[in-house]
Design a protein that fits this description.
Layout: H1 7-15, H2 23-29, E1 41-44, H3 49-52, H4 56-66, E2 73-79, E3 82-87, H5 89-103, E4 117-121, H6 136-151, E5 155-160, H7 167-178, H8 189-205, H9 208-222, H10 225-248, E6 255-256, H11 266-275, E7 280-282, E8 285-288, E9 298-301, H12 309-324, E10 328-332, H13 338-350, E11 359-362, E12 367-370, E13 377-379, H14 390-407, H15 418-435, E14 443-445, H16 447-450, H17 458-475, H18 491-501, H19 503-512, H20 517-539, H21 550-574
Parallel strand pairs: 4-5, 4-10, 5-6, 10-11, 12-14
Antiparallel strand pairs: 1-3, 2-3, 7-8, 8-9, 12-13
Helix pairs in contact: 1-2, 5-18, 6-19, 7-8, 7-9, 9-10, 14-15, 17-20, 17-21, 18-20, 18-21, 19-20, 20-21
Bound molecules: arginine.
Arginine (ARG) binds near residues 126, 313, 331 and 333.
Length: about 575
C-alpha cells in the first residue's frame, strides 16, 4: 500500500472507518459540489443507503457528527443527502505546490515497484515485411507502459520478440533461389515482400513449389550454410529498417529475443510434454487439451512435425521467467490474439508454471479510418489512398505539422528550428492520438483531428506546455516556493491545484489498468483548466499571471511552474516530447 496522497484518498480513508465500503470505492464516489459555498468535495449518501439501510439524509447527518477530518479539511457539513467537505484551500495549495516544487520531475513517481521487475514485450514485428500502421499501437502503448512502471519504481525490461522463424522464411529462401536473385545481400524489405508474393502466386498453381519451400525451411532448421546466410540477410535488412522507423517514434528495446532463439529448445520441450502426458497425440499432431479451462486445445506440433507459433511462445515465456523472475510479464499484442494468449497461459499453467498467472495480455483494438462518404470507421486501404506504411504515416504527419505551423506563423514563435518543431509536433500528434483512446477500443486515425491545435490532441497539450514556459520566460525571475498561497484565491486557481494534486493517482491508475489513456485524459483536463485560467487573465489584467502585484505574481508563477512540470512529466510518460518554444 502506498501513502494516500490526494485529498480524495485522505477523506475516503476517514469515511471508511464508519462505512462498510473500501477507501478506494469511497474515493471514487466523491464529487465536486456545484458551488464553492457548498464545499469542495461531496459524498452522495444515497449511494450508501443500500449498505447502511438508512435514509440518505440521516446518513449525511450522522457522518457529519462523527467523521474525522484529515489535515487540509476544516469542516464536514450535511446538505440534504450529501456530506460535503470544506478544504482549507491555502493550506492544501501550499502543500501541493510545495511538493511539486520540491520534487520537480519526480512528482508523480513512487517506489511501490522497488525491487520488482516487469517484463514488457512490444513491437515484435515479423521480419521481411515493412512496419505498417497496425504496428503503431503495440510500440507506443508498450513504450508508455515502460515509462509508467518505471516511474513507479519497477525495473522494466523491454523485449522485442522478433518474428524470424517459421515456414514463410523457407518460402523466401526458395524464392531467392528460384528467381536467381543476383545479389541477395542487396535485397531491400520491399524486394523481399515482392519475392514472397511472386512465389506464393506461383505456388498456388504449382504445388511442387510448396514442397521446395518446406524443404528450404528444413535446411534452415538443420543450419545449412546457404539457407542460414540468406535468412541472416533478411533479418539484417529488416532490423535496420525497424530501428529507423521505431527510432522516429522514440521507441527502443532493451533486448531482442527473436523467435529463432527458442528453436533448439523445442525438441526437448515436446519430449517433456509427451512423456508427462501434458500433451497428447491427435490425428498425428500434438496438442495440449485445455477443456478444464473451457478453451480449445493448443497445438504444439503439426502432423508433419513442424513447430508452430505456440511452440516458440512456451519456451520464450519460460525463458523470461528464468531470466527475470518478473512481477508481471506483459504482452502488448492486438485483440485478435486474445484467445491465443488465454490458451498460452492455460497451457503453461497445465505444465505446472504457477507464474503463468503473472502474464498479462495487454490487448488493443485496430486503427481505423473514417470513410469520407459514409462517415463510418473502417480498416484502411491503399486503394482509397490511405497511407498504411508506418514510415510514410510518420513522414506525412511531420509534413502536415509543418504546413500547419507555417500557415499560422503569427501564433508560433519559431525560427530556424522549424524542421525540428514540425517533427516533434507531427510525431507527437500521431502518438497522442493513439494513446488517448482506451486501448481495447478501435482508434480512429484522422489527420485533421489529431493535428488540431484546439482539439483534444497532442499539439494542444504541447502548445499549452510551451505557453506555460513562455510565461515563465517572460517573468524573468526565479520561481520560489516561499509564497503566500492564500493569494491564489481565484476559483480557476483552486481548480488547477486540485487537478495537479491528482497526478500521482492518475499515474498509479494508468499502471493498474495498463492504460496510458488515463494519462492522456488527465493531461487534456489539466490543459482545459489552465486554458480557463489563462482566458480569465486575458479579460482582466488583475487576473493575469504576470500582474503588477509582486506577491500575487510570485504565487501565480509557482502555480504556473507546477502545471508546466506536470504536463511535461505526463507527456514524457506517453513518449511525447514537450517543446519549450512553439
Ligand atoms: N510476431 C507476431 C505478429 O506479428 C506478434 C508476436 C506477439 N508476441 C508473442 N509473444 N506471441 O503477429
Amino acid at each position: 500500500m502506498h501513502q494516500p496522497e490526494s485529498m480524495e484518498d485522505r477523506i475516503a480513508a476517514r469515511l471508511a472507518e464508519h462505512v462498510p465500503r473500501s477507501a478506494a470505492d469511497l474515493a471514487e464516489l466523491l464529487q465536486t459540489p456545484p458551488s464553492a459555498e457548498m464545499g469542495d468535495y461531496g459524498l452522495p449518501c444515497y449511494t450508501l443507503s443500500k449498505y447502511l439501510h438508512r435514509d440518505p439524509n440521516e446518513i449525511a447527518d450522522d457522518l457529519e457528527g462523527k467523521v474525522g477530518l484529515p489535515a487540509g479539511i476544516r469542516e464536514a457539513r450535511a446538505f440534504g443527502p450529501y456530506l460535503n467537505f470544506f478544504a482549507d484551500r491555502p493550506m492544501v495549495t501550499e502543500r501541493v505546490l510545495g511538493r511539486i516544487h520540491r520534487l520537480g520531475a519526480a512528482y508523480g513517481s513512487d517506489n511501490q515497484g522497488a525491487g520488482k521487475r516487469i517484463v514488457i514485450e512490444y513491437g515484435s514485428p515479423n521480419i521481411a515485411k515493412h512496419l505498417g500502421i497496425h504496428h503503431l499501437p503495440s510500440a507506443v502503448i508498450g513504450r508508455s507502459l515502460y515509462r509508467i512502471f518505471q516511474a513507479l519504481g519497477y525495473k522494466c525490461v523491454a523485449l522485442n520478440f522478433l518474428g524470424d522463424w517459421g515456414t514463410s522464411f523457407g518460402r523466401l529462401i526458395a524464392a531467392v533461389e528460384r528467381y536467381d536473385v543476383e545479389d541477395p545481400d542487396g535485397l531491400t524489405v520491399s524486394d523481399l515482400q515482392d519475392l514472397y508474393v511472386r512465389y506464393s502466386r506461383e505456388a498456388a498453381e504449382n504445388p511442387e513449389l510448396q514442397g521446395t519451400a518446406r524443404q528450404a525451411f528444413l535446411r534452415l532448421e538443420r543450419g545449412e550454410e546457404r539457407a542460414t546466410a540468406l535468412w541472416n540477410g533478411f533479418k539484417e535488412v529488416s532490423l535496420r529498417e525497424f530501428d529507423r522507423v521505431y527510432g522516429m517514434l522514440g521507441v527502443g528495446f532493451d533486448r531482442i529475443t527473436p523467435e529463432s532463439l527458442y528453436r533448439d529448445r523445442i525438441a526437448a520441450m515436446l519430449e517433456q510434454l509427451r512423456s508427462r502426458g501434458t500433451a497428447v497425440e491427435s490425428a498425428g499432431a500434438l496438442i495440449i487439451l485445455l477443456e478444464e479451462e473451457g478453451l480449445p486445445p493448443c497445438m504444439v506440433q503439426k502432423s508433419d512435425g513442424a513447430s508452430l507459433y505456440a511452440t516458440r511462445d512456451i519456451p520464450a515465456a519460460e525463458h523470461r521467467w528464468d531470466e527475470y523472475r518478473f512481477e508481471k510479464s506483459l504482452y502488448v499484442v492486438g485483440n485478435e490474439q486474445s484467445l491465443y494468449f488465454r490458451q498460452l497461459r492455460a497451457a503453461l499453467r497445465k505444465m505446472g508454471h504457477g507464474w503463468a498467472d503473472r502474464m498479462v495480455h495487454v490487448n488493443f483494438g485496430l486503427i481505423k479510418f473514417r470513410d469520407p462518404e459514409t462517415g463510418q470507421a473502417r480498416v484502411g486501404s491503399t486503394r482509397r489512398g490511405e497511407l498504411l506504411l508506418l514510415e510514410d504515416v510518420l513522414n506525412e504527419a511531420v509534413r502536415r505539422a509543418r504546413a500547419k505551423i507555417e500557415e499560422n506563423r503569427d501564433r508560433f514563435e519559431v525560427g530556424a528550428d522549424l524542421d525540428e518543431l514540425a517533427a516533434r509536433v507531427g510525431i507527437g500528434a500521431v502518438v497522442f492520438s493513439e494513446l488517448s483512446t482506451r486501448r481495447t477500443r478501435d482508434a480512429v486515425f484522422d489527420w485533421d483531428r489529431m493535428l488540431d491545435f484546439e482539439g483534444d490532441t497532442g499539439p494542444y497539450v504541447q502548445y499549452a506546455h510551451a505557453r506555460l514556459c513562455s510565461i515563465l520566460r517572460k517573468a524573468g525571475q526565479d520561481v520560489g516556493a516561499d509564497v503566500d498561497c492564500s493569494l491564489l484565491a481565484m476559483p480557476e486557481e483552486w481548480a488547477l491545484v486540485r487537478h495537479l494534486e491528482r497526478f500521482p493517482a492518475a499515474v498509479r491508475r494508468a499502471a493498474e489498468e495498463y492504460e496510458p489513456s488515463v494519462i492522456a485524459s488527465y493531461l487534456l483536463e489539466l490543459c482545459a483548466d489552465f486554458s480557463t485560467y489563462y482566458s480569465a487573465g486575458m479579460r482582466e489584467p488583475d487576473r493575469r499571471v504576470l500582474c503588477s502585484e509582486d506577491r500575487i505574481r510570485a504565487a501565480r508563477l509557482l502555480l504556473v511552474d507546477a502545471a508546466r512540470n506536470v504536463i511535461r512529466s505526463g507527456l514524457d510518460l506517453l513518449g511525447v516530447t514537450a517543446p519549450e518554444r512553439m
